[in-house]
Write a structure and sequence with these properties.
CATH superfamily: P-loop containing nucleotide triphosphate hydrolases
CATH architecture: 3-Layer(aba) Sandwich
Largest sheet: 5 strands, parallel
Strand order of the largest sheet: 5-6-7-3-8
Number of helices: 5
Helix content: 25-40%
Shape: globular
Order of helices and strands: EEEHEEHHHEHEE
Length: 191
Amino acid sequence: MPTNTLLKIEALTHGPIQNLSFTWPAGLSWICGDEGTGKTTLLRLLAGDVQPTAGKVTAPEGGVFWVDLQDAAHDNSTVQACWDALRTRHPHWHDDVLNDLAEALNMNPHREKQLHMLSAGSRRKVMVVAALASGAAVTLLDQPFAALDLASIRIIQDFLHEAAEHPSRAWLVADYEVPASFQTTRVLQLT
């Protein structure tokens, strides 16, 4: 892989993703499309959560962060237990980022609550805080703004604006469209 490419797919096929080839450099990129176009499927393929029926994914050293905390299997875990478990899988984890975001997103009062006790927005914040604190070479975010209040959206967008120019890490955000506040040249539009 060229040095500016952190993640690469070649002729990737699985479900709605058919014979797709693409590369992602460091910084911020978007994967956009309507419902059912394969945004989440692509993220799961990039993370190795599911295997392609054809093609390949070339991921960087430094790992790929992906977690879906919406799954009922996580319902009885506390917020803190989720973060602790994810920390052990990501050697470049940033506790300072976790603590700053937990404070900014008002998640500290929820650290000992089980996930099933949280609103959809708070549950999403648990995932986003972990993703942004992971320190992984590539961080995958699936609709990070869904079910969030405007203040929380602004905090996450501010973080992503700073990440946009990072020289050695990549953030891939899947959503229906790129928010107006982002000027980016890296958009993969799925149809």
